[in-house]
Amino acid sequence: MQGQSTALKPVDYDQAQHAGYAKARALQPRAIAWYMDAFAAYLPPERPLVGIDLGSGTGRFTPALADAFGGPVYGVEPAARMRETAEVKSAHPAVRYLAGHAAGIPLPDGAADFVLMFLSFHHYPDREAAVREIHRVLKPGGRAILRSTFRERIPNHWWRSYFPRSQQIEEAMFPSVAEARLYFEDRGFRTIGWETPTIPLENDLANAVEKLKLRAVSVFEHMSEDELTEGFAALDAALSAGTLEPRPTTGDYLVFARD
Ligand SMILES: C[S@@+](CC[C@H](N)C(=O)[O-])C[C@H]1O[C@@H](n2cnc3c(N)ncnc32)[C@H](O)[C@@H]1O
C-alpha cells in the first residue's frame, strides 16, 4: 500500500547498529569512487552541485559526494548517534550534518540539485510525505537517486543461505520497483534511469564474516537471537572448512528527474 511502510517494526539506529555500522559497512575507496562516477552520469554537468544525502547514517558517502560534485552536501539523518559518528569520522569542509528526516528536511525550497537515498528509503515511515518533501527541496530538473533493494529482486547475498528467513523478511521490508516508481511518478518526477551494477565481494572472506557479525544489516533486527547464533555458527564452520562461496551480488538504483 502506498504511503505506509511494512508491518515490520522500525529499526531505531540510536538503539541498534550505530556502534558497528561504520566498520561493518565500510567500502573500499574504489567502490565509493565507482558510485560517484555512476551517479555523475545522471547529474547535470555543471559544478558545484548542492546535494542532500538523505538518511546519511555515519556519512559513508557524504564527503565523497562533496568531493565529486562540489557541494555543499547536507547529510540529513534522524539518529543522533549515527550523526555523531558521521561528524567524527566523515567530516568535510563542504559537508554539514543536520538533524532531520525524509518527511521533514531542514532546508529551504529548491535548495538542492540532487538527493541521494542510499539504503534509507525503506526506513521512511511515510514515503508519500518523504517524496513530496524531496520534490520541495529539489530545484526544477533536480535528480533523486534511490539506491535500494526491491521486493522482487532480493539479491542472493553470499550469506543468504545461512539465514534462510532473511529472504522472506526482506520481501516484507522493501518496495517493488513498480511501487517505488509510483511514489515518485505520482508526485512530479519521471524515471530516467534504472541500473543494476554487480557488487564484488571483498577478497578476504574471514574479514567479510567478521564484519557481518557486527550485525549492521537491518534484516538481522527482525530475526531471533537463536536464528542469528545458528547462522553465524554455520558460517564459521563453512569458513573453517573452506566451503564458504564468495559470490558477487547486484545492487539496484533508480534515478528520477524532478519536473
Ligand atoms: C542502512 S542505513 C544507510 C546509511 C547511509 N545512507 C549508508 O549507506 O551508509 C539507513 C539510515 O536511514 C536512516 N533513517 C531512518 N529513518 C529515516 C527517515 N525517516 N528519514 C531519513 N533517514 C532515515 C537511519 O537512521 C539510518 O542511518
Structure description:
The chain is of the alpha/beta class and 259 residues long. The chain has a single domain, classed as 3-Layer(aba) Sandwich (Rossmann fold), CATH 3.40.50.150. It is built from nine helices and nine strands. The protein has helices at 18-24, 29-40, 62-69, 80-89, 127-137, 166-173, 177-185, 205-212, 225-241; strands at 49-54, 70-77, 95-99, 112-118, 138-147, 189-195, 198-199, 249-250, 253-258. Strands 3-2-1-4-5-9-6 form a seven-stranded mixed β-sheet, with helices on both faces. Strands 7-8 form a two-stranded antiparallel ribbon. The protein is globular. The relative contact order is 0.16. S-adenosylmethionine is lined by residues 13, 25, 54-57, 60, 77-79, 82, 101-102, 118-120, 123-124. The site of S-adenosylmethionine (SAM) has 18 residues, from loops.
Short structural description:
The protein is α/β, with parallel strands linked by helices and 259 residues long. Helix content is 35%, strand content 20%. The protein has a seven-stranded mixed beta sheet with strand order 3-2-1-4-5-9-6, with helices on both faces. The protein has a two-stranded antiparallel ribbon with strand order 7-8.
